[in-house]
Structure formats: structure tokens, C-alpha cells
Amino acid sequence: MKQKKWATTLGAMLLATSLAACGDTGDTTEEDQAIDVTEEHNAEQEEAHGTMDHSGSDEVPDGLQEASNPTYPVDSTVVMTADHMLEMEGAEAKIVGAYDTTAYAVTYTPTDGGEPVENHKWVIHEELDTTEDAPLADGTEVTLRADHMEGMDGANATIDSSEETTVYMVNFMLQDGEEVTNHKWVTEDELEPKE
Asked: Does the record bear Signal in its keywords (predicted)?
């Protein structure tokens, strides 16, 4: 009799545990968490790049050298894989300039009092107020001479990372039909050939 009672109690406990596991506990799945992270990333990008001057002039900083043999020549069409700006990833772009330099990801506080911008990609060596040779070490403090975003020119910044590469100036279309011209900068590893 004791065995039967013990088996019944064990069975009831297992059934209760199974039902509790199947119930809605309010926990999110890995897929839901991934969606939340993606939405949060997109919102951060929109906020960080909301004041970005998507289009720019075709002028480049003094001393910037044109690439002699770029992987993607001027006038070629590519697909961007970069996601540091909304609507960039997957967009087709036309190469309008190719230059050999050092590209930096930087963290800076805008001069117009905006929130700090972390890991902004990209500022090139020729857009820094420095007499030091490239590449600068991670953690180096510099003054920016780029105007990609409001409050960037003259801002104090810290080098987060650097990459010696070919950078490209590109034209592309946003999803709303706005044409972005002379966008600075996309690095070589953020581009793929158009198939």
C-alpha cells in the first residue's frame, strides 16, 4: 500500500511539474530576446545617427591619397554589409571615391551638448587634428575635424579601434527614396560585389 501511495504522489508531482513547464510563465524565448536586441540596436542607431549628414560634399581632407588599385574601382556597384547606419546594410551603392588610409572607430561627446556617441564608424586619420603618424593606438585622445554629424567637428574623442584599409565614398538610396551622395566612409570589408 505504501508503494502505491508513493508512486501516486510521485506521478502527481511529475504531472504538476510538466504542466507548470508548459504554462505561460512570461519568460521570453531566445528568438524574442534576439528580436528585442535587434530592435534596441536599431533604435540606438537611429538615435545616434539621427543628426548624421547622410550626404556630403565630394571634397576630401588634405593629404588623403587615392587608392592606386582598389578592390572596388570608382563607378562600380557594390552591396554594403555595414550596419553602422540605418538602411545601410544590404543597400546597393555606387563607388565615387576610394582612398588608402587608417579608419578609426571613435567615442566622442558632441560639441553641441548632445549625448556621447560611442564607437562611431568611421573617421579617417586625415580627419583628426594630430601630427602623429597613423595608426594611433586604441585609447588615444584626439580632436575630430570631421563633420559627418552635428557637433562632431572640434569634438574631443577617444580612439576605440583602428583599421588600415581602403575607405570608400559612396552614393546609395534610402528606403524612402532619398538619395545619399558622397557618404563618408565605408571600409573595404563592409562591401561585397554586386552579383
From this structure: yes
pLDDT in tens, 126-183: 999 999 999 999 999 999 999 888 899 999 999 999 999 999 999 999 888 889 999 9
Domain chopping of the chain, boundaries: 65-193
- Domain 65-193 CATH superfamily: Domain of unknown function DUF1541 (2.30.30.1210)
Q: Which DSSP string corresponds to the chain?
A: -HHHHHHHHHHHHHHHHHHHHHS--SPPPHHHHHHHHHHHHHHHHHHHHTTB--S--S---TTPEEPSS-SS-TT-EEEE---SSTTTTT-EEEEEEEEEEEEEEEEE--TTSPPPEEEEEEEEGGGB---SPSSPPTT-EEEB---SBTT-TT-EEEEEEEEEEEEEEEEEE-TTSPEEEEEEEEEGGGEEE--
